Amino acid sequence: MAPGIASFLDGEVKKRSSQSCPLLFAASDSDADQLWFSRFFVPDPFVSFAVGGKKIGVLNALEIARGRKESALDDVLPLDEWRERAKKQYRASKPGMAEIIALLAREHGITRFRVGPGFPLGLARQLEKRRLVIEVAEGGLFPERERKSAEEAEHIRKGNRCSAAGLRAAEKVLRAAAIRNGRLLYDGKPLTSERLKEEIEIACLRAGAVSSHTIAAGGDQACDPHCSGSGPLRANELIIVDVFPRVTATGYYGDMTRTFLKGKPTDAQRDLVETVREAQARALKEVKAGASANKIHNGVVDHFNSRGYETKTGGDVPVGFFHGTGHGLGMEVHEAPRLSKGAGKLKSGQVVTVEPGLYYPGLGAARIEDVAWVRPDGCELLSSYPYRWVIR
Amino acid sequence: MAPGIASFLDGEVKKRSSQSCPLLFAASDSDADQLWFSRFFVPDPFVSFAVGGKKIGVLNALEIARGRKESALDDVLPLDEWRERAKKQYRASKPGMAEIIALLAREHGITRFRVGPGFPLGLARQLEKRRLVIEVAEGGLFPERERKSAEEAEHIRKGNRCSAAGLRAAEKVLRAAAIRNGRLLYDGKPLTSERLKEEIEIACLRAGAVSSHTIAAGGDQACDPHCSGSGPLRANELIIVDVFPRVTATGYYGDMTRTFLKGKPTDAQRDLVETVREAQARALKEVKAGASANKIHNGVVDHFNSRGYETKTGGDVPVGFFHGTGHGLGMEVHEAPRLSKGAGKLKSGQVVTVEPGLYYPGLGAARIEDVAWVRPDGCELLSSYPYRWVIR
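^ Those are the sequences you sent over. The predicted structure of the assembly is below.
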């Protein structure tokens, strides 16, 4: 998987190994650095490190055959064997991971490791007791992960095809739904957020991705941007559908949002949605290498202010536009960089969502989200779905 | 959600706050301690801590309303406000999480925090620079998480109902499949592991859970216990189906495995499956509070040896029985305790899988997995699905 990335990484690893060697202890199912480094899925934490341009993993009997077959690791060492060796070396009846790593370091001539800020504190302290130097790479262990190759952009595009499949399923259900006393009926039963999410997630599965925590929230529920929605959906209310599935084969995410309304919008609803779409289109035009992410975000803020959409965050329930304009997307659904207040300059290869939103309890909420690959002279959209939003 | 647990925790928190206060910085979507503590889903890391019997969370504008409504936190503080205060306090234009936590500690009279072994090293070092003492709770921040209440057992039972829905879907597809030249055809097209997993995962979704990394592997592929399976499935081969979905509403997992065969088994296949089932039944009989997990595991090892099923782990591909007999299950799919070599005594309330397996390339593999709730006088099964395995 992704040989282009692996060789790019190899270069990085070679360049740095004279200083300190990257060390990881995490499950690649859940840790993006570990997945990026090893390129195969393991449910439990395992040790990996790089030395002399080689990527080495230490795997238990359960994972070792698959590690040799599927992973991007150059060398796979059997954990059991190294545990036995650590037992003798340190005369410990039950050597822990720290003893095993200390022995691996000794045998590979390593005295300093470089780890990500999220490296487990407990293990770090034990390694320090074994006189290893543990440096924290404050900007992340693999900051190069931010800049996506063409192959990675393709994986994210695939993720967004899955998101789009989810949006299509949602639109189809809303289109087929009947309006009865202001509520929506689908297949003769009340259409709830839960049912809509189920159809979206099934569509994602059929497209090759797993979607968790999908959002399909209507009316005032949608005014809480991370509320996933529950209970009956209503006619003539704005419904935010936000789908961020993870592609099963690669671990890359898609992330797209559309706002729908079944029935007939009011002028205020129409103005809200159109203002959000305008803000998004303007922001997308500004995305390119060297552009200030802070400025792009402030452009959205100014646009909303100029249209009279006020933001207030002091009270119990914030209103207006009170989240960032976007975030990096890759093997994590939220990763560097951010498009928000105080953020720096965009770099070529970064992949960011652009997702302004407006939230006003009583009126409802709108958010529209696409994904852009930052290029030297602009950006390439990695997501595609129509912006029609009124469903009769 | 789960008020019983919350009040149990409150007791724990109260008892300990004279010593050091638990501190977390993690996303509850992915970190079980944070989910257990806060009882609501947040996609990004956030700070939470307990002091004076109160659970406190520090949430950004995006999460704050939901935190007040949905979480088990007693107090929800706005991150933005505390960032502003830290800015003034430390005269930092961009105060980090460490400055915010240091200020929170000061205002709450805290000088020592207790964290889990997985607490992020980078943040811990920054807190130490701010002269906070960070103790690592080596046995885990909330070791009480191992012992499940009746309510939690019910959540896990629900997870296993979702697993069973997946197994039922798999069995239904296999039953409906036709055999053509040794391969399986379903709906006129070759039945692949991928198609079978899709049907399983859709059934899980319909039942209320998200299943990732589902295993549906046949023949020699299944001899690698974590190989999820790919390509066409064949008649007369053993097919391992392992389904561990996470219940969307609660975050608890189910985890069940059955081994199927479509067609006609050989005597060797029959003996393999029956031996695994016997081993499992024997192990389940021994599960109770005070029983040695090591002994239960060794019982399985001995049973297999006595039946002539040899285990070899030295070579490239391990054969026989080379994984643990089981693992704890809860808000993590693999958590404490383990049922394996060197493991300690079981405690009442723990929830463990019991899943012996045998793996022999050429012959195939069998694994059968159920979930047991450890009780003082035995165990209560939290999973239920028939053991029939030959599908004509």
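Chain A has two domains: 3-141, 146-391. Chain A touches chain B through 53 residues (CB under 8 Å).

Shout if you want it in another format.
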